[in-house]
Structures are given as C-alpha cells and as structure tokens.
Design goal:
Number of strands: 21
Distance between the termini: 68 Å
Radius of gyration: 26 Å
Number of helices: 4
Largest sheet: 8 strands, antiparallel
Strand content: 25-35%
Shape: elongated
Helix content: 10-25%
Length: 328
C-alpha cells in the first residue's frame, strides 16, 4: 500500500487534487517548513524536523552509524504539528472532495468536530522517516491526524518528543570510518609476523541535533557520539589472537590509538593462499543525548545504544620464505 504523507491511509481513495483544483503543493502544510533545497547540507526528516551534524574531525570517509544492539530500531512513525483549525478544514475539503468510503467517513468525522475551529491548539499529523507507510506504525487510519491543545492532558505515545528526536538523530548520524593503516601493508602481510594497526589521524566526538520549530512548537534533542575503543578482527581463525581491542585515549587533538606497544598485535599463522582474509576494524562510540540543541547539556535517560563505524579490507598473507625467494 503506497501512501503519501499528506493523506490518511485509505488505499484507492486518496485524491491528488480536490474539486477546487488545488494540487498537493497548494495545500496547507504541503512541504512547508522543510526547505530541503536551501538546507540540504543539514537535511530533514518527516515534515518539519531538521537534522544538523557537526563536522567530523577525521578527514576520511564517513558512514551512517550502526547500533551495537541488534534489537534496537529507530521510530517508524510519529505525530508532528501540521495545521491550524482553519488550515485543517481546507486540507480535509481539498483532499477528500468526492472521495469514497472509508475516506468520506473520515472527512465527515472531522467535519462533525468542526475541525476544532473554536479551540486553541493544532492538528498533528503522522509522519514517516522516508515518506512511505510502514506496517509497523502503531497509528491507525482513523487517527491519521490528532488534535493537540496547548496543555495536553493525555499526550499520545506517538507524539514527537525529545526522546523520539534523539532516536531520529542517532539514526541519522554519520561517523568516521576507522582511520587505520596496517603495517606491513594489507597486500604484504607475512605468516608469523606481527601486524601493527596504526592510527593515521585523530577522532573526536560527533554530535547530531534533531530539532522541530513549527507553529510555535519547539523541541530539540542532540546525540553525542564519543569514540571509546578500536576493535580489529583478523578475518580468520588462523591468527593469534583472532581479534584485539584497544582503548582510545584523548590527546590534545582528539582521540587516538596505536598498537605499537601493545601485546595484542595480530599475527597470522597461515597463508591466505591464492585468496585473501577479510580484515575488519571497528570503532565503538559511546552515545548520549541531551534534550536541547546543546551537545554539552545534561545527559538524559533512557540511554541510546553504542554506535559502530567499520572499515573492511581484504588482506593478503604470504609465507615468509616465499617472499624471500621472490626477492632473491
């Protein structure tokens, strides 16, 4: 069932234009507040949530953070403020003019409520992170929009909150891949020769803010990811040890690690033959969040899972004597 964010989920009954000749871009709330083109470097989610991330200290590649908790999932939907009562009346009449059932019943339901035109508050509408309906969304089709007064006595559990914003920020965070270099090089590793994993750059914390500022509703949350450990995996059981973990230490220019003086250097015990081993380096990031746009604000609960950034590369391991013969 393909849905548009601007309409309740009635498959087959959604009208792109109403009887009044309006189009999607003409309707109140359609695309308003996103300004994606003018602010594409920051990005946006849903209707009015802005994403802003600090520039990573590392000049290397970045990738969207993954969660260390395989069971953690970001929000699949939430309510955002969208319409004043007058805007909502126009939206319903233009979106549902001439619609069949059950969409027509939905429109009559809102008409009987007089769109709350005599009340203080806003209509909030369900939103999705990628503009498509998710079956896991707990919002029902008869409540695609909800009325929210200024003093909300019973907040809907799906109404956007700083906690939900923190989860959206976490899911949008891009983290630097581990700036590591193997010594010897990845194509020149030798059996029984310790492999040194050297940091070729510094890391620092990365913060991401998700904020909402629309029709007087102002909310924000900032996640802060701090690098704490580097883990390397040799990619084969024929290594001693197969994996190592190094603590990252903060210096004057950021966090760094170096395995030069460590007793945990990976030593390959068998040649990779005609193939390679999938060496992997991963950085664990401790993630906290604040209920504001300030990364230095007080950490909030419940906490978020650790984040991970990973670098994978194929390595070639040869027998030492074979290299000697080649060089003789």
């Amino acid at each position: 069932m393909a849905l548009s964010l601007s309409y309740p989920a009635y498959a087959g009954d959604i009208q792109v234009g109403g009887d009044d000749g309006t189009t999607e871009s003409d309707r109140p709330g359609a695309g308003s507040g996103t300004d994606a083109g003018a602010d594409s470097a920051k990005g946006s989610i849903g209707a009015h949530i802005r994403i802003n991330q600090s520039t990573p200290a590392s000049s290397g590649s970045t990738a969207t953070a993954t969660s260390s908790d395989a069971n953690w999932e970001p929000p699949v939907c939430w309510y955002e403020p969208m319409y004043t009562p007058e805007e909502y009346e126009k939206f319903i009449k233009s979106a549902y003019g001439g619609a069949g059932e059950p969409a027509a019943s939905y429109a009559r339901k809102r008409e009987k409520q007089n769109y709350h035109k005599d009340d203080e508050g806003l209509w909030w509408q369900v939103q999705f992170p990628d503009d498509t309906y998710d079956k896991a969304c707990p919002v029902t089709t008869d409540n695609w929009e909800i009325w929210v007064p200024p003093a909300d006595p019973q907040p809907d559990p799906n109404k956007v909150t700083p906690e939900i914003l923190s989860e959206l920020a976490f899911n949008s965070t891009k983290l630097p891949t581990p700036p590591v270099e193997l010594q010897p090089r990845a194509d020149r590793l030798l059996v029984n020769l310790g492999t040194r994993v050297a940091f070729k750059g510094d890391l620092d914390r990365v913060w991401t803010t998700a904020s909402l500022d629309y029709k007087g509703v102002q909310l924000a949350a900032t996640t802060v990811a701090t690098p704490v450990a580097l883990k390397v995996d040799a990619g084969t059981a024929d290594a001693d040890p197969q994996s190592c973990t190094y603590d990252l230490v903060k210096g004057k220019d950021g966090y760094t690690a170096d395995s030069g003086d460590s007793g945990c250097n990976v030593t390959y015990l068998r040649s990779s033959g005609a193939g390679t081993y999938p060496f992997k380096a991963s950085i664990t990031w401790k993630v906290t969040w604040t209920a504001s746009a300030d990364p230095d604000g007080p950490p909030q609960q419940p906490g978020l899972p650790d984040g991970l950034s990973t670098l994978e590369q194929d390595v070639t391991v040869k027998e030492a004597q074979a290299v000697n013969r080649a060089g003789s």
